[in-house]
Amino acid sequence: MTGSAAVLDALRSALGDAVVTDPARLDAARGDKSGHRSAAPPLAIVDARSIEDVQATMRVATATRTPVVTRGAGTGLAGAALATTGEIVLSTLAMDRVLEIDEDDLVAVVQPGILNGRFNDILGERGLWFAPDPASRAISTIGGNIATGAGGLLCAKYGVTRDAVLGLTVVLADGRIIRTGHRSVKGVTGLDLTALMVGSEGLLGVVVEAVVRIRRRVEGAVATIAAFFPDAASAARAASAVSSAGVQPAVMELMDARSLAAVDALLGTTMGAAGAAHLAVQTDGPAASTEAAEALAIIESLGGSAELTTEPEEGERLLAVRRAMHPAMERLGTTLIEDVSVPRSALPAMFAAIADVEERFGVTIPTVAHAGDGNLHPNFVFEGDVVPDHIWEAADALFSAALALGGTLTGEHGIGVLKRRWLEDELGADQVELQRGIKAVFDPLGILNPGKVFTPLVAG
Amino acid sequence: MTGSAAVLDALRSALGDAVVTDPARLDAARGDKSGHRSAAPPLAIVDARSIEDVQATMRVATATRTPVVTRGAGTGLAGAALATTGEIVLSTLAMDRVLEIDEDDLVAVVQPGILNGRFNDILGERGLWFAPDPASRAISTIGGNIATGAGGLLCAKYGVTRDAVLGLTVVLADGRIIRTGHRSVKGVTGLDLTALMVGSEGLLGVVVEAVVRIRRRVEGAVATIAAFFPDAASAARAASAVSSAGVQPAVMELMDARSLAAVDALLGTTMGAAGAAHLAVQTDGPAASTEAAEALAIIESLGGSAELTTEPEEGERLLAVRRAMHPAMERLGTTLIEDVSVPRSALPAMFAAIADVEERFGVTIPTVAHAGDGNLHPNFVFEGDVVPDHIWEAADALFSAALALGGTLTGEHGIGVLKRRWLEDELGADQVELQRGIKAVFDPLGILNPGKVFTPLVAG
């Protein structure tokens, strides 16, 4: 038998019909929602149904030195779960149960494959809620959320994913299991491996269970503001002023002129005529009305033309423009959705930098921002399936601008393969060396998601 | 020259009069607020005034293979900063400046030596606030807070220390510098070394600067409830019911009968006659009154006899009993302050377990709990300076009970030397092995705080 045949044989004898080699499924595992695709399909997919299946897969992988790419719903935006020749895809999508909901301690125990939206539907039946669900909640899994440190719209007020993950059950590269963290609010026993696992993009182990903090649903009316501004920089200044005044919106979303134009084209609306940037603000909780009034005053004093409502249906109408962004982008062509994050006060400067990049590289970059936390999603639009070089050059300039403003390469999507060449620009060589060292402690054979996050040490 | 003389010589030529060998100061570095002391005084103390001093110290330590114990104010409760024969104490207490306060982005940059209370005084002048300051705020440093992952009274509502630390500047064992994390709310570039550093108890590097989240001060009236219950278990049940009803107190503190008796002895009061357990609840923010009314109803329905006030002075009076706890303990004798944390709903069971340990081992364990987050501080009272064996046996039984209830050995004090023998009971051998591996990546020579957290691999 060849090496690959031997691996398949070992997988099948350990896992039976959980091992899939259907060409369509193997082909799908080459890509994710970034649009990026690997060079060739992987060897096989294991549809793990249990922790034991995950352990069996890792034991075969260790014994045969076969790379493993853990994968959920494939909705990543940085290529962290792309699989290629000779690799085993370990799918945790079928491990999709909520194992426990503890309303007294406000924790839940979940398997990694459950969709964020489905989890929140189940919690919602009991008046509960998991805060850090990303915008992709309808199609993305909790496991992917944890693997990337995904964020979403509500992080400024309700925390990032790391803050909500209390404990993890992790299968290591050789099939052993560790249980990190705790169920209690506090716990500082030893090094914080739970936090280290969040955002580790499949490099350190396979998350098979998670203990997460849940919340009681926020009661009371929600207030929604929609405002138009003459330009993105002034909208960004208003957003920053709202935050620094101590108002804490649940949602604060900024769209630039190109984004508005794209949404107008999709919906047949004429919002672009009302202004060149759109800011949507939503407040919740007991101070929702007071906070919204304060935000409205700030927005109007800084040149915004705004509407405020506390009617739920009207609020949904005001947010419709933001919700139409993704479908609108899909109509423009292929997009590289970027994900830089800067300190809130640097948002106006970042919008100026984006305009500069557009001009210098002759590209179009509709941009939306989670303005409450300084996280921008510039959308690089291009023709065809492969990101052209000039788009990467423009992205390079954009990353440099974000780092120069005290920001980061990625606020919530991760590094994957798409951004690994910039990793050292942000972290520095010494920190990258430490991170590689940690990776080697967890994965001495280098079989967990090789080639992701870090550039290969040897070209390959 | 002997080895020690050569190290001192190298330190003095690199650091001049920052090197201190005053016997009284060396002796003080043998202990901390746990009451525990090392076998003998360290070699020298370096009073670092700058990052360069820290780097110079670590370069000498690396060149001479000399152990380094980083130390702030010495207020630790687990012996993590005790120094002994042949060790260099690296004091960051003189690096005590606030380098930046950014009111727009609500972040501050601080040096490690600033006291938590002093930092909050400076922030308070601008209407700002750093939430995770521990009960020891008046005497403990931010550096120590970060090193231990210290908590305090407000964590359930306002987050733990890890949630508030966005980025760190760290001097590595060999004197190199890394900058982890970011200034933005979000950021997921690479592995989360910022979170890994929080609570790492001096094992991985020396924190020389921190970027922390700050908040606008919470406006409006504060409501305070003081309630007496017939026993600690019923007070704990009420506390748990308040949380699970979705009320989010800023402070919720529980004292048992032995604690009340000690405070009565200190203050000459007769609170013990009013009930056998005391629960103090404080709500803040726009819903303070509503939440307090809801909490009061729950407390009374569960057997509590309660007072509620929104007058600040009266509120302080109601909390005075809790604030008197530490001085009251000091009058009882020497105390080993323990720090287990359990899921909130397990608080009644944990109080029952403590009563059982008292009976089995013939010891007295006055206990207070941060009831909002399930963190208990059982105080083992004994005679003399050294924790007697039977107290450790009782503590062992208490730790086992906490772990059996899904809890942790330490909620906010750390492992240090006092709890290292139980580390593996909580984490398991495989996880400890990984943690040791991470330690070795950061500190291949094993010179950073050796013998802390992990038991020595070779007896010594």
From TrEMBL, chains A, B:
Record has NADP as a keyword: no
Show the InterPro entries listed in the entry. Answer: FAD-bd_oxidored_4_C, FAD-bd_PCMH, FAD-bd_PCMH-like_sf, FAD-bd_PCMH_sub2, FAD-linked_Oxase-like_C, FAD-linked_OxidoTrans_Type4, Oxid_FAD_bind_N, Vanillyl_alc_oxidase_C-sub2
Q: Which domain of life is it from?
A: Bacteria
Start and end residues of each FAD-binding PCMH-type domain:
38-217
Q: What is this protein called?
A: FAD-binding protein
Please list the cofactors this protein needs: FAD
Gene Ontology MF term list: FAD binding; oxidoreductase activity
- Keyword annotations of the record: FAD, Flavoprotein, Oxidoreductase
